Amino acid sequence: MAILRALWPVLLVVFCLFNSNSVNANTTVSYDGRALLINGQRKVLISGSIHYPRSTPGMWPDLIAKSKAGGLDVIETYVFWNMHEPERRQYNFKGRNDLVRFLKTIQAAGLYAHLRIGPYACAEWNYGGFPVWLHSIQGIQMRTDNEPFKNEMTIFTTKIVEMMKAEKLFAWQGGPIILGQIENEYGNQEKHYGEKGKAYINWVAKMAEAQNINLPWVMCQQEDAPDPIINACNGFYCDSFEPNSMKKPKMWTENWSGWFLTFGGRVPHRPTEDVAFAVARFYQRGGTFQNYYMYHGGTNFGRTAGGPFISTSYDYDAPIDEYGYIRQPKWGHLKELHHAIKQSEAALVNGEMHSISFGHDLQATVYSVNSSGICAAFLSNTHPRKDATVQFNGKSYYLPAWSVSILPDCKHAVFNTAKISTQTSSMAMEKVGLESLLPAETETSSSDTKPSINWSWHKEPIGIRSGENFSSNGLLEQLYTAKDKSDFLWYTNSVHLDEDEPFLKNKSQVYLHVKTRGHALHVFINGQFAGTQWGSYNNTSFTMHIPITLKAGTNEIDLLSVTVGWQNYGPFFDTWEAGINGPVMLLGLKNGTKDLTFQKWNYQIGLNGEHQRLYSKTGANAVQWNSGTYPPNTTALIWYRTEFNAPKGNNAVALDLTTMSKGQAWVNGHHIGRYFPSFKAPTDGCSDTCDYRGTYSPTNCVTGCGKSSQEWYHVPRSWLHPTNNVLVLLEEIGGDPSGISFRTRYVDTICSHVSQDDPTAYYSVEESHGVTEPPHLNLQCSSGQHISAIKFASFGNPKGSCGTFYEGSCHATTSSDIIRKACVGYEECSIPVSEALFGKPCDDLVKSLAVEAICSH
């Protein structure tokens, strides 16, 4: 076993080379009413979304290898227009934007690719993937029958297609790309654009076909997709979806494996059993291409998150988590599902389908090929509460509520969506204090003295201080003004008050009243922080009404409007505005109300520190920094800087920023993203348990009530040096950097529960001798870890679930000793669930084995 583990990286490469999909320079891809055809052969395909800018090139090979090991055939990705063309005709395909490298990594692993060019993406991505410079084009209207927009869309689409052709990445050239997508979820919005919307979608189809990619094109959520474009489904469930032509296959381009996280929102989770149920139902009802959105969600680095108020984390409760770790049991359970579906492929794509009703909510769907003996069946129970037993082909089959059983031979149920036998893993985030990561030259000499963090800080000037400022009468909209060069726009004005103002004598209160379209607003009066307020994902606009302190003479009023990612979805989303729209008024003066709305305002896009690039080494050296062990922790608009060594080992790294309020973070000049721990989730709506049964919605299974929506912020290992790394924070409201720590992610607890009669856990079948080995319980820690302890083990009828297992009425006393001997000290182990090994603790009972183990470094 140890030799196999040591050779695994080499074996994986060999496996990829000799087990890759059959793609060569003559590969053809087409479709009929049943499936996609690869070289004329119908295929059942299982796909997963991985977005290349939401991870790093160093992560791509591992993510794709884990996707293949999980049973995927295809990797699906959007192409992000604003990342590749940030300025008009200035392109960027480097680093995380290296689309060609990403596709070639997919190809090297022997997988196919679905390229969703769009170029509108949605994707909880800033501005839906559109570059903001589009607004500077005279007469432009987006996503409609508008010549300036269609011209730009054609230029970018052609740019991507020609790049793919030049790199020989289409399937007919020997590359991995077997599908293209044009536009995205336009059908939901088309009616708002009237006749121009219909004309636009017809033009889009013709433009795509004119690209001559010699592959099928897809439009998702587009019931009127013109031939030969395939219309496809997006959603939590797509089993009832039907394409708009019997000549097109039933395709599911987005099966939402979880849901996105918003700042101020609870953390959503989609139960594994429900995802599996939705997938099995889709294939049961004639589907042959399904894609998980997301299979790896990743991270919204920099200012890429849209929404607004979409968090920096885009974990999405996906089978591979934000940091690149396999999420169990979701990954493993779906892998077993994929295997069962693939066993049924010949019947699914070639067989005649007929259904048998066993009563309300109970159904068998059979696919059979006449005279060949090829047969596959799906037995479903769609009732959200009642379990059932059905008779099929002379046998009884137990169907839990909200589940599907798959019988690849119409006889043996090899998989049920509600029965999880794969390993369950609990992930932990080990705290690594900054003081333990100090560079050698900053450590104290005494071993008895705890080293102190040497923070440096630089106060951001309040109001307009750079030369890049301008004036305008009235209040300007932020998107058109700032053009997404920064989250920040200063609105500055001044008010002269006479000494006879009554409030100066009678101590009455003056109020500032500001109406804004969002997303956040910080107020400064005479250089002093006076208050802050923000909107939310569901309501970005708000009115701020706060008491302020003014003086006789001239008073400076500095309003800092802050965006938290631009709108990415909805009809005419590109026209949605942000920033202060007014009125802006002072209340409580001797003349009543003073309206500042239409006065002359001064403006500055961005902060001084942004213009000076304080997050870079060159920029940091250009200003004076204060330093000391105890940095100020209540100051608004302040930059913090410190150095640290990378945490030891290879585990994924995150920043714990829960002691901060709101701002942005950089490590070695890489923009980690926005942080917002002060925006807490509601205190209600969470539960320790989650019932997978019944129609899922993102509010069903949530955690994190009353906590910061996002606590940890991913720092890719490839962005770290062994020593002398630089962390820079821009804090907007006031936080305590002395409480910041790093976290390293690892598998903590692993569990599995396997029954003697579980058909999905069979280790091997020796057909030549007619002997079937018993099911095996398999445990595996992360690479570099080993099983250090067994917390629970019971062969018999153990009860509970991972973390809460307990012995039932039947228990083999040898359980713990056998498991310890087989597993402790090893990275992985496999144990037969057999009376021959554990003995016979009781009669007349189908027994199972439950184990909970601890993984350690």
Q: How do the helices and strands line up, and which of them pair or pack?
A:
Layout: H1 2-18, E1 29-31, E2 36-38, E3 41-43, E4 45-50, H2 60-69, E5 74-78, H3 81-84, H4 99-108, E6 112-118, H5 147-166, E7 177-182, H6 194-209, E8 217-220, E9 230-235, E10 251-256, E11 267-268, H7 272-284, E12 289-296, H8 330-343, H9 345-350, E13 352-359, E14 362-368, E15 375-381, E16 388-392, E17 395-399, E18 403-407, E19 415-416, E20 424-433, E21 455-459, E22 469-473, H10 478-482, E23 488-497, H11 502-506, E24 510-516, E25 520-525, E26 528-534, E27 542-548, E28 553-562, E29 580-589, E30 592-595, E31 600-605, H12 608-611, H13 617-620, E32 626-628, E33 638-644, E34 653-656, E35 663-667, E36 670-675, E37 702-703, E38 712-715, E39 725-731, E40 741-755, E41 765-766, E42 771-772, E43 776-780, E44 786-796, H14 815-823, E45 828-832, H15 835-838, E46 848-856
Helix pairs in contact: 7-8
